[in-house]
Amino acid sequence: MATATATGGPAMHHAHPGTAVWVRRPAGAPGGAPEWAPGVVAAADAAGVVVRVEGAGEVAAPAADVHLRAADEGVQDLIRLTHLNEPSVLAALTTRYGAGAIYTQTGPSIVIAVNPFRPVPGLYDAAAMERYRCAGAAGGAVDGAAEAGGAADGAAPPHVFSVASQAYWRMRREGKGQALLVTGESGAGKTETSKLIMKYLAYLGGYQPASSGGGSSSGSESGAAAVADDAAGAPGCAPAGSVEQRVLESNPLLEAFGNAKTVRNDNSSRFGKYIELHFSRRGAISGARIHTYLLERSRLVHTAKGERNFHIFYQLLAGATPEERARWHLGPGAASHRLAAAAGCVALPGVDDAADLETTRHAMRAVGIGPAEQERIFSLLSALVHLGDLEFAPCPRDGDDACALPEAGARALASAAALLGVEAGALLKAVTTRTRVTPDGPIVSPLGARAASDTRDALSKVVYARLFDWLVARINAAIGEDPARASTIGLLDIYGFESFEFNDLEQFCINLANEKLQQHFNHHVFKQEQAAYEHEGIDWSYIDFVDNADVLELIEGRMGLLDLLDEACRFNSTTPRDLADKLLATRPTAAAGAGAAGAAAPRLARAKRHAAAFCVSHYAGPVTYRTDNMLDKNRDFVIAEHRTLLASASCALLAELFGADAAAADGAAGGGAAGGAAGRKGFQFVSVGSQFKRQLAELASKLSQLHPHYVRCIKPNPAGVPAALDSAYTLEQLKCGGIMEAVRIANAGYPLRRGFGEFVDAFWPLAPHLWEPRLARRRAPASDGAGASSDADRDAAGELLRAAERRAPAALRQGADWQVGRSMVFLRATAAGALSRMLAQALDAAAVSVQSGWRGAVARREAARARAAVLRLQAGARGMLARAEARRRREARAAAALQAAWRGLLARRELAAKRAAAVATQTAWRAHVARARFLRLRAAALTLQAGARGAIARAEARRRREARAATAVQAAWRAAAARRALAAARGAATALQAAWRGRAARADFAAQWTPEKNEAARTIQKLWRRRHVTRSRVLRLRLQRAFIAYADLWHSATALQCAWRRHAAVKKAQEMRDELRRATFRRNAAMFQSMAAAAASGAKPRSPAPRAAAPRPAGGRPPSPRVPAPKPAPGGRSVVCTTFRIAAVPAPCGAAPSSPTPAESAAAATAAARLAATWTAPGGYPGYYGSDGVRASYADVVKGDSVSHLPSGERLQQRIGELRERAKVTSLLGVWQQRLQQQQQQRAAAQRSREVQMRQREHAVWQRQQQLMRLHQQRQRLEAEAAELSARRAASGYLGAPARPHQVRA
């Protein structure tokens, strides 16, 4: 069959004026208007159709945009529509939804459920469950007619219970497993529908008639008692502890850990779920098993704006007791933790998270999780909450290759480590470092802030995923499988087709699952059509349908998109752009569909607006996927450091999740050798796509062994508003759910199927003689075999079709356009259109005849009625005029009274408004005065505090500098004293040795005396007596050298004294400057007070005169007070005073040379003589001789009274260099020089800073003066306005209290 028949286009060539049709609205129609509008054909030709639409005039449209319309939009089964097309399907759903019927049948095993977004009373109560149970047990829900062509006449209305009952009773009769597939987009009601199905199946599985008196395998309650419990809101239909009870109690537990709030749904399932219910031979539930698919773990660390994380975290943060909060280190609410408050949505309207936590705890107890295990679960969840609070910052020392943990993060780290049962340091190391195993040994590398955050997120996701899998395993263990089960019913609650603005790996996997399910759905619908034709004995040919095997081969085939994605994930250097290019390099082509006649069309294309993206043409439409995050999300690895750390944790639950068994499972998931190699590199590579592909293959294998039943959940509008159905939005979901494909497959064959009696009732005007026999048969009592037409109705239907064929032989050909089956008539779309056209013509002719007779009778009756009415009108008109005059006079009097009252009301309102304005003005002015006073006080306080704190800080800095200087001086002085003591001890020892040796020599001489020795002694005495001549020569030489050494020592002492006195002078100058600043501050404060007083009295203050800058010397430093130096005297040496013993040190550079006075020269000569006498005296100071023969020892040096008697800079530096070479200057010289230079630079910078601050303060004082002047002027203006306002009040007689002048302050 050609697919054009599905659209209804060819039928439009047979349309004639007056035919009821649907027409697509033009592009310029209002946004809220439906896409299809009802109308009537005004004209039709080969070019198109002109349709007359109510409210829009005539619309010209092509034949493809026009479809036939019938008046049967409220049918329960869409297959039974007269014209099976898009607008008719939408009209049927809209009509039923408006009438409160949210369920619609599509064939025998497909139910469309439209979310009402409001409670529907009586739709799911115990009576409804019992009604559908009875219908299913009696065979009313499933019979041959229903299997062949949809819901039979008289069957129970479509309901989610009806499809569940159909699956249950078919399983009981045939012993074959059944499957219930619930799909739809987020917010369509999949989760609630699945819970209702489980509740109804549990009711059927635990039902026992009251008359049996025995107990079933699942409980001992009777059916009536179970219904009563359900109606009363009991937790379940079965007794506590039964399999049914545990199955139902698992729902809130899985919802708490797997559901979350999204932008489309407040309770969206973020995982796929397949529940196998096991039944015994008696039809009782004997066991169950739950399988989960593709948990959205990324939601744990990345939540979109306006969404929430998983429900369990908000339940925990809202319902934990104070003791539990203290034990788990939790904050006061969800807003205090980043994991729960990152997206800005914390609470849901109408949802009590604390009460939901109690429900979750009850569900845990129902599936066998005791208080101890609950404590471990909630501790682990709290640890994940604290892990979410960890935030890393780039380390300032190590750049981007390391990160630092702030103080708040350290507290969160300690809490998380304590709850996980690991060391805080080990946890921090596992998160902020990465260990790579090399042949030379492990290498530990630090991670940057972003990489550490990614590692933290990976740790949180793997812990939560394993906890979720552990919960599912515990639920399965609590429910228990039945190895001896007779049959099963599978319930699949999985995500619907998704297409957003930005689609990632989650949408790719979800749409792959929908492609797989759509293929299963297409094959099932196709087989169902074949079964219907075979059951009715209809000659049929092959029905073409869209097969999406090429898309599945593209995605999951050998070297398909999933394999290429896994291959790219094995290389760390692959970028998102590289991945997109690699995927697009395949560029496969496949058949576009059944109507393309084998034409090839690309299923994979490059995205137009993004380089790192690709577009896949799915069955529901093209979807563009971004590859920015696909590589990271597809790598489902467990970092080796994380696994080792968590496996060794003291938390029993965590050790169980990451113990040896879990590690073995990771190795198996990694895939043999590849997994082992990956483990040696630090992690095991496990692909999310490959896991999901394997799970889908297992699911498809299970579903292929079961008979499917479909529940397509529809969200009527994006906003979730009750009683509003958006046609375009609903049609898109029907296409994504495969409903329109099922309609197209049905339309490709014989879409119009009617029972014989129903067909005769609809088209009897084409053969009027058949109506009376049909009416007689309808009035007759109903015979056995309800749902099958009688032979008479079959003959009548055949006769009617042959009569119609004689009228339009081209459109109604027996065997090609229509056939008669065993229980109904099958018509193609062209035949249905021809019958509708002929029916409309027959009805039009009958209507013209009836209308002509009726209009004549009406015209005669109206003429007689008009004559009598004229007389009554004249009498009434005269009375009306009189009553109008009376009414006018009454209204005039009432108007005068109303005007008086209204004017008084206006006057009172005006008075009240003026009074309110006055009060508001006074309030604003008083508030302004109070704020101004507060700001002045605060500014003054800040100024005082700043000055006081600055003085304290400067005093502390000065004290520390003095302490450091004193320490240095003391250290130098103590070293000099130690050296002097050493020299004295050495001299004493030398003298003692000399005396002792002389004594020994004299004794030896006396013992060995001889005349020859006497003669030698006389010769020595002669030489000794002449010693003064030689001694005087040597003495002169020694005195000359001593004086030179003395001069060097004097210069060094003078330089040291100069430096010290300069330090004292600078300190004194600093004290004087501080005193000057205090005096200036006091002067400015007094000036500020005087200006404030002047502003209060009305005088204008003067701006401060600029402060005269102190004269600065050429060097840039202001002069400091010094001790006056004496006048220099000839000779170039300074006056000496008291003496003290120090080591020789050099003088600083920069002092100008001067000539000493005569007194100074005399004092120097005296000191030189004393020094020479000291050195030459027998008891002089000991010392040593250098290489040049000059004695270098500690000497008495004098202290100069002036610092101006220093040599020039070059000479002083040269002399200092010589002293250093001769080792006569201590090493402290360079330190002192550097320190003095730094102090000078610091003092100069501080002086410049103080001058800038002083100028800024003076400028601020001047600005404050100007501000005070402006405030004073404003005060005068406000006082004048207040006086004027008071005068006006007095003139108008206002009795309110006037504003007092003293209340208005500047």
From TrEMBL:
<keyword id="KW-0175">Coiled coil</keyword>
<dbReference type="GO" id="GO:0000146">
    <property type="term" value="F:microfilament motor activity"/>
</dbReference>
<feature type="region of interest" description="Actin-binding">
    <location>
        <begin position="696"/>
        <end position="718"/>
    </location>
</feature>
<dbReference type="GO" id="GO:0005524">
    <property type="term" value="F:ATP binding"/>
</dbReference>
<feature type="compositionally biased region" description="Pro residues">
    <location>
        <begin position="1116"/>
        <end position="1129"/>
    </location>
</feature>
<feature type="binding site">
    <location>
        <begin position="184"/>
        <end position="191"/>
    </location>
    <ligand>
        <name>ATP</name>
    </ligand>
</feature>
<feature type="domain" description="Myosin motor">
    <location>
        <begin position="73"/>
        <end position="840"/>
    </location>
</feature>
<dbReference type="GO" id="GO:0030048">
    <property type="term" value="P:actin filament-based movement"/>
</dbReference>
<comment type="similarity">
    <text>Belongs to the TRAFAC class myosin-kinesin ATPase superfamily. Myosin family.</text>
</comment>
<dbReference type="Pfam" id="PF00612">
    <property type="entry name" value="IQ"/>
</dbReference>
<dbReference type="InterPro" id="IPR027417">
    <property type="entry name" value="P-loop_NTPase"/>
</dbReference>
<keyword id="KW-0009">Actin-binding</keyword>
<keyword id="KW-0505">Motor protein</keyword>
<protein>
    <recommendedName>
        <fullName>Myosin motor domain-containing protein</fullName>
    </recommendedName>
</protein>
<dbReference type="InterPro" id="IPR000048">
    <property type="entry name" value="IQ_motif_EF-hand-BS"/>
</dbReference>
<dbReference type="GO" id="GO:0051015">
    <property type="term" value="F:actin filament binding"/>
</dbReference>
<dbReference type="GO" id="GO:0016459">
    <property type="term" value="C:myosin complex"/>
</dbReference>
<feature type="compositionally biased region" description="Low complexity">
    <location>
        <begin position="1092"/>
        <end position="1115"/>
    </location>
</feature>
<keyword id="KW-0518">Myosin</keyword>
<dbReference type="GO" id="GO:0016020">
    <property type="term" value="C:membrane"/>
</dbReference>
<dbReference type="Pfam" id="PF00063">
    <property type="entry name" value="Myosin_head"/>
</dbReference>
<dbReference type="InterPro" id="IPR001609">
    <property type="entry name" value="Myosin_head_motor_dom-like"/>
</dbReference>
<dbReference type="GO" id="GO:0007015">
    <property type="term" value="P:actin filament organization"/>
</dbReference>
<keyword id="KW-0547">Nucleotide-binding</keyword>
<feature type="coiled-coil region">
    <location>
        <begin position="1229"/>
        <end position="1288"/>
    </location>
</feature>
<dbReference type="InterPro" id="IPR036961">
    <property type="entry name" value="Kinesin_motor_dom_sf"/>
</dbReference>
<keyword id="KW-0067">ATP-binding</keyword>
<feature type="region of interest" description="Disordered">
    <location>
        <begin position="1092"/>
        <end position="1132"/>
    </location>
</feature>
<dbReference type="GO" id="GO:0005737">
    <property type="term" value="C:cytoplasm"/>
</dbReference>
